[in-house]
Amino acid sequence: MFKWSMAALGGIACILGITVLFMQVQHNQSKAKPEASSAALPDTAVNAQAAEVIYKQSCIACHGNDLEGKVGPNLQKIGGKLSDQQLYKVIQNGRGGMPSFKTALKNEELVNLAKWLADKK
């Protein structure tokens, strides 16, 4: 009888484990954002003067006077590596040691800065 009880408990534990694993996979899939949902940035002209002001206020300490990099990476040719949309996401959400600027800057400023950096090739 003891063997049957242990076998039944083992089977139940196995089923529960599989169920939990399945639920975790489902949860992770529901959290994933499909690339197609990434809307393109507005088709607006870059205001270089405004972007430079934002850069000096928010970025220069880590990325240097001439975008040469200090604590943060060199941005002099970042537009050759990342698109304006990718740059927008990095500036908005942060990455690695870089903080998020979504609450510090207006969306128009984020877009303009991302487009300005994307022109650096």
Automatic annotation (TrEMBL):
Superkingdom per UniProt: Bacteria
Pfam families the UniProt entry points to: Cytochrome_CBB3 (PF13442)
Residue ranges occupied by any Cytochrome c domain in the UniProt entry: 46-121
Classification via SUPFAM superfamilies: Cytochrome c
Record's keyword terms, sorted: Electron transport, Heme, Iron, Metal-binding, Transport
InterPro entries according to UniProt: Cyt_c-like_dom, Cyt_c-like_dom_sf, Cyt_c_BACSU-c550-type, Cytochrome_c550/c551-like
Listed PANTHER family: CYTOCHROME C-550 (PTHR37823:SF2), CYTOCHROME C-553-LIKE (PTHR37823)
Name of this chain's protein: Cytochrome c
Origin species: Paenibacillus filicis
Taxonomic path: Bacteria, Bacillati, Bacillota, Bacilli, Bacillales
